[in-house]
Design brief:
alpha/beta; D-Maltodextrin-Binding Protein, domain 2; 3 domains; 304 residues; Arc Repressor Mutant, subunit A; 21% strand; 41% helix
């Protein structure tokens, strides 16, 4: 009889998943936290496997567990199998060009101030494709986070196997409303209330270095948790913030904000990250081509 017809005598997948987490952490409690299960559920899953194969997978001593030799062997094989299974499922999902969903991870401030106002236009162009927008910044594992695309400011290391499509360069400079500038500043930016964000704590220092005025200090300062809040505070006439394009591109165009001292390149780019060439998937190609059409080169703003 062909081996293809031999019934596989494997423990349930759920039990193997529980064992893998427990073995990786060498802790039933930490495995339970990771999988959102109880300690008892992890213990029962491990006992089920041990009963099936007839050997102990853990040594239990002083409320701690240690892998046996058999447990180490099973951990290696189980980890490889689960990784392969996860990878295959994700590959099928990502390359299913008929899928009506495209999962996009985007930095929160960029998403709120630049991408979301434009998604309506993309929806009109591609009504059959639904964008699942997830807001996150920094490094990302597209496979484990089940994302097709990430849009990022390229200020961190990128995995070598990612495809990087540059969208635009970043320019930055002080931004505020014209009313605030005329009323509180009048050419002396040190008279302003400087708005900071904890997600870009060095923005003002970097700008001062670019201007050769490292010793300049403001009349007052105010700190916010996120870049988006600092820019909104500037728009609400609470002070002056370091704004960057493309995040303030729409505000500058409509004159909700002005950049009275001009803007300079920061040396960073915004880019699209994909695991494969964007043209391999029609969904990714449609979205990336649309994104490229939305971004235009950023130039310094004329000083007042």
């Amino acid at each position: 009889m062909s081996n293809n017809h031999i019934k596989r005598r494997l423990p349930p997948l759920g039990a193997l998943t529980a064992f893998e987490a427990a073995a990786r952490h060498q802790s039933f409690s930490r495995a339970a936290q990771e999988l959102h299960l109880t300690h008892g559920a992890i213990s029962r899953a491990v006992a089920q496997i041990e009963e099936r194969i007839g050997v102990d997978l853990f040594l239990r001593r002083n409320r701690r567990v240690y892998l046996t030799t058999a447990g180490q062997r099973l951990l290696k094989t189980t980890s490889e199998a689960l990784d392969a299974l996860s990878h295959t499922v994700e590959e099928i999902h990502r390359h299913d060009s008929a899928s009506p969903f495209l999962t996009v991870s985007c930095e929160p401030s960029l998403a709120m101030r630049w991408l979301m106002p434009r998604l309506g236009e993309f929806r009109e162009r591609c009504p059959e494709l639904n964008i699942d927008l997830r807001m996150a910044g920094g490094s990302i594992d597209l496979l484990s986070e089940n994302c097709d695309i990430a849009i990022r400011r390229m200020d961190f290391g990128i995995k070598e196997n990612y495809q990087i499509t540059t969208l635009c360069s970043e320019w930055a400079g002080p931004v505020c409303t014209k009313v605030y500038w005329d009323k509180h500043i009048r050419q002396d930016v040190s008279e302003a209330n400087w708005l900071h964000s904890r997600t870009r704590p060095n923005a003002w220092d970097d700008w001062k270095v670019s201007q050769g005025i490292e010793k300049l200090t403001p009349k007052s300062e105010q700190h916010f948790d996120h870049f988006f809040y600092a820019l909104q505070a500037a728009q609400d006439q609470l002070g002056i913030a370091i704004g960057s394009t493309p995040l303030v591109a729409d505000d500058l165009q409509t004159q909700r904000l002005i950049a009275p001292l001009g803007m300079q390149p920061t040396g960073y780019n915004y880019a699209l990250l994909t695991r494969d060439d964007p043209n391999q998937d029609p969904r990714v190609a449609a979205f990336s081509n649309w994104l490229m059409a939305q971004t235009t080169p950023c130039y310094p703003v004329v000083r007042l």
